[in-house]
Each structure stands twice: as C-alpha cells, then as structure tokens.
C-alpha cells in the first residue's frame, strides 16, 4: 500500500477489528523514515510497542530519536481530570469541556508536525504522518460529530495539503438500530468518507466465520490529487503474526 | 435540462450529493460555465482548497474568479483565512460582493453548505439564504450540500428554498453518474428530469440519455430443459383427442354465457318458497314500507 502523494486514509470497521491496519501503517511509516505523530487514544504505548516489535520496529527507540511523537490518551487523561483547572489549549481539554471542540488537540498535532524534525544524529525526517487510533472514542466522551469533522478538516489542511504528509485515521462503526440521521459513529464515518482520499472498510465475511479468511476489506478510492475517482473493490484478508495478506475474493489458499 | 440550468444560471441552484457520488466535479463545471458567460464568481471555499475547485481556468476567467479563502482555516483557529464560516451572514456576503469593482451579475458559490449548516442555526441559515436571494446583488447562488450528513428535515428545508435541485448518484457504469434535476419555475410548475453525465478533467460536462450497455443483457439462455414426462412408469402425455376434450371442459367457477342464461331462465318446480303461517303469526298483507315518503 504505497502512497506516492499525500493521502488521507480512513480505516473503518464494523463488528470487526481493523487495528491491524494501524499497526501496519505505523511500522510502515516508521521504516520509511517519516516523522510520525500518533494519537493513541485507546491503548497504552506498551501495547503498540509489543506489536511493533513483532513487525520489526522499535517504538521506544523511535520515540527517543524524536521520530515518533506519541500521545498516550489513557495515561494523560488522568492528569487532565485530576487538575483543578485546565487550559483550553491542552490537547486533552475536551475531557473537561467536550462541548468546546478539539482545537486544543489540533494545536498539539500542528506543533508536532511542524517541528523541523532533527533527530539526534542530525537526520531530517520525511513528510509528516498523523495516525489516530481511534477517533470514534471521542464520541463516547461527549464530543460532537461536527467538532470531530472540523478537527479532521484542519488536520487534513495542515498535514496533507500544506505539508504533503499523510493521515491515517481509524473509526469504529456500530450497528445502529436507530435512524442513521442521529449523531453517532455512522454519521461520523460518512463525514470522514466525504473528506478522505481512500477509505478502507473492514468487516467480517457476510457468510460467517472462517478459519482461513479473517474478513473482507473494501478499498474505496475516492480521490487522487485533483481527480475524483469512485472505485470500490473488495478483498479478503488473513491476519498473520507479522502482518496481513490480502487476496481477491475466492482465491484464498484454503480454497484453491 | 442539466445543461440548460448550467448555461442559464439564475436563482438558487442546489447540488446535492452523498458518499456514493460526489458533486464537486459538477460544481466545477458550473463555475466554469458562469465564468464563460462573463459573470463574476465569488467562491466561499470552506472544505476544499482553491486548486481543487478552480483548476484549469484561462487567464481571462481567472480575473473574474474571487476565491475567498475559508480553507485551510474555515473557523479562524490559525488566523489565516479571509472569510470564516461564522461570517456567513447576508451583510458580510453582500459587502464582500460590493467590494469587487465593476461587479456585474455576480454568482455566489458555497463549498459547502454542509459546513455552514454545522455552525449556524438552520433557521438563521435559511433566513440568510433568502435575504441573499432577494437582495438583488447576487444573480445566482450555487451551493453544494452533502445530504447524508444532515437530518432529512434539514435537507428538505434547503431543497425547498432552492429553485433547482440537482441530486447526483452513481450509475451502473463507472464512468457515468446520474443527475436528477428538479426545477421550479416562478409560476410554480415543477419539471423533473434524470440524465447521465460525466465530467472531464478540464471541467467539461457531457450529458447523455440512458446508455445502452451491450453484453450486459443476456439475450440467449443456453438452458436446455429436460423433458419431465419421459422415462416414467406411468403415462403423463395426452393424445390429440384427450387434449381436445380437456380444452372443452367448462371449469366449475367460470361464469360463462351458458350458465348465465340458465340462471336467468326460470325453471319450473325449483326454488319456490312456500310459507304456511302459524296460528301465532301475525301476517300483515300490507306493505310495511307504504308510509315511507320516498
């Protein structure tokens, strides 16, 4: 999955787990020498570090060198909640005042990606990359869909349009029985699909559980540069210890 | 009708899209068409960069295009924009248009109305749109709305305000999209048309009627049906006489001419009712309905 130009890649899932794609992109961009800003809102640093180790990258080393900036949402939230006052511009200020929006979080991302990355050895990193895992958890914290869409618009403007970097965002959708007009993860996902260049949607197989095929992934090319595409293809995948393999439908090694 | 609307302009034209199919390409065509007519086009770009909306213009057109930079800072967080979303009021916009020199027949393009609706009250938004329409400074308003990002009621309100609503959807053919145009004239007449269109790289719109798709329709069916009456131990086939007799049988519940005439002909000795009044019965020979004044 090589991206030549700056892309906003949306990874979404429904009743499946697409986080293997986040781990893939994290190790991919670190290996490519890009400056990575990772907002890890749902797991601890050691979790990603352990998976990254198996994929061949050392997150701790990358963080020390300054290549990786990791916002550990779970750990830092204690600090915000236990303080008596919090500034508007703190990255996790939405925990105290979710109605105010995500401007603080955007400022954190902006300062991180704009730093002229100079590692300890004086190396400069490639175009910046923003990874978010996962954005739908903000909905459960009281942030509105509109505020999240504004935040991603600003991130896209800065990271993709201005700095020619890439953005990969994970959003988890629910099966909602209620009307899809209501504020929820499906509305958020639709808004993000409108903004993104490439949408990867992971679901289980419609026919049920299979030992050799872990699910299907729909690849939706929406835009490349100035051209508007609208191409969708479905692939099957199997997750291994060190990555995932993708194949066209019906060509799994278990079948052929 | 789509080409007519694009080339004539005028009124409030709403381009409605969804995740299935984006209408931004069509929006570019409308902008190019307005510039070719010699009109001044003001674009309030909140969602996409200038390069995406205004690519491929020649130098004479570029002078009449005014892109008011909302993107990349539509909310004013980094103080780099010339027009933020909250300035979407009729006073600000009218002032913006009046500020351009030698303005004639201005066209206002909003990309997108969804962004504005996210930050303004729907009622105030509608009032603003109505004021802009009736203001006299703007000849045409073209807005892009993502219909799947709002409640149905809100989409309905905006469609109601519009003189022309163009909804785009994907077609079976990947190169084409479907546009459903609904146009309301001043007299109240509503016209609707569905057309297939495609937008080229240089924002040229080509419209066509429903395309024929050879090879998709299966003309011949190669299914050879096996004869079920062969190889049986009993006979299921009919001889000629048997088939004729079968066709002659009158079905029991079919109301044929014969049955009808049989029912109408009174047959003697059938179906007569004989009533013997009892000693306790009070038989009155008079017609009980006689006193009705009908």
Automatic annotation (TrEMBL), chain A:
Cellular component aspect of the GO annotation: cytoplasm; elongator holoenzyme complex; nucleus
Pathway the protein contributes to: tRNA modification; 5-methoxycarbonylmethyl-2-thiouridine-tRNA biosynthesis
Matching Pfam families: ELP6
GO biological process: tRNA wobble uridine modification
Family: Belongs to the ELP6 family.
Protein name listed in UniProt: Elongator complex protein 6
Biological source species: Cyprinus carpio (Common carp)
Gene: LOC109106072
UniProtKB/TrEMBL annotation, chain B:
Gene3D superfamilies: P-loop containing nucleotide triphosphate hydrolases
GO CC annotations on file: cytosol; elongator holoenzyme complex; nucleus
Superkingdom of origin: Eukaryota
Keyword field: Cytoplasm, Nucleus, tRNA processing
Record pathway: tRNA modification; 5-methoxycarbonylmethyl-2-thiouridine-tRNA biosynthesis
Compositionally biased tracts (Polar residues): 227-236
Biased composition (Acidic residues): 278-294
Transmembrane segments: none
A Gene Ontology molecular function term of the record: tRNA binding
UniProt family annotation: Belongs to the ELP5 family.
Protein name: Elongator complex protein 5
């Amino acid at each position: 999955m090589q991206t030549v130009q700056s892309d906003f890649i949306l990874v979404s899932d429904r009743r499946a787990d697409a986080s293997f794609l986040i781990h893939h992109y994290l190790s991919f961009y670190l290996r490519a020498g890009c400056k990575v800003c990772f907002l890890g809102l749902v797991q601890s640093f050691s979790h990603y570090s352990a998976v990254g180790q198996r994929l061949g990258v050392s997150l701790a080393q990358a963080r020390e060198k300054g290549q990786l900036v990791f916002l550990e949402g779970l750990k830092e939230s204690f600090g915000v909640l236990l303080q008596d006052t919090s500034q508007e511009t703190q990255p996790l200020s939405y925990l105290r005042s979710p109605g105010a929006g995500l401007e603080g979080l955007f400022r954190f991302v902006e300062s991180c990606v704009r730093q002229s990355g100079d590692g300890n050895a004086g190396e400069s990193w490639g175009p910046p990359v923003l990874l978010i895992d996962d954005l739908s958890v903000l909905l459960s914290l009281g942030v509105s869909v509109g505020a999240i869409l504004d935040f991603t618009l600003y991130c896209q403007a800065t990271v993709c349009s201005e700095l020619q970097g890439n953005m990969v965002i994970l959003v988890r959708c629910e099966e909602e029985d209620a009307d899809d007009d209501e504020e929820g993860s499906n509305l958020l996902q639709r808004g993000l699909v409108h903004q993104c260049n490439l949408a990867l949607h992971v679901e289980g197989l419609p026919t049920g559980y299979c030992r050799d095929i872990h699910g299907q992934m729909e690849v939706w090319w929406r835009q490349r540069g100035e051209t508007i595409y609208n191409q969708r293809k479905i692939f099957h995948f199997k997750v291994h210890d060190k990555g995932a393999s993708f194949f066209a439908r019906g060509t799994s090694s278990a079948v052929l | 009708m789509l080409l007519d609307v694009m080339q004539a302009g005028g009124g409030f034209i709403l381009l409605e899209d969804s995740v299935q199919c984006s209408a931004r390409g069509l929006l570019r065509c409308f902008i190019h068409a307005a510039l070719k007519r010699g009109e001044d086009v003001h674009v309030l770009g909140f969602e996409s960069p200038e390069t995406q909306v205004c690519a491929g213009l020649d130098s004479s057109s570029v002078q009449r295009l005014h892109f008011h930079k909302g993107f990349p800072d539509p909310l004013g967080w980094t103080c780099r924009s010339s027009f933020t979303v909250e300035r979407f009021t009729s006073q600000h916009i009218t002032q913006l248009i009046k500020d351009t020199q030698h303005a004639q027949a201005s066209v206002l393009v909003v990309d997108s109305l969804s962004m504005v609706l996210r930050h303004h009250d729907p009622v105030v938004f509608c009032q603003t749109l109505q004021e802009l329409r009736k203001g006299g400074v703007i000849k045409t308003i073209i807005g892009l709305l993502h219909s799947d990002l709002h409640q149905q009621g809100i989409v309905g309100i905006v469609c109601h305000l519009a003189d022309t609503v163009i909804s785009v959807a994907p077609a079976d053919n990947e190169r084409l999209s479907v546009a459903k145009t609904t146009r309301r004239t001043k007299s109240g007449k509503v016209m609707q048309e569905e057309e297939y269109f495609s937008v080229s790289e240089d924002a040229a719109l080509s419209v066509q009627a429903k395309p024929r798709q050879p090879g998709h329709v299966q003309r011949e069916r190669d299914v050879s049906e096996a004869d079920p009456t062969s190889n049986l131990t009993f006979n299921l086939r009919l001889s000629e006489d048997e088939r004729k007799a079968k066709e002659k049988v009158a079905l029991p519940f079919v109301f044929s001419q014969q049955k009808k005439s049989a029912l109408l002909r009174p047959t003697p000795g059938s179906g007569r009712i004989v009533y013997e009044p009892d000693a306790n019965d009070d038989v009155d020979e008079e017609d009980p309905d006689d006193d009705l004044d009908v």
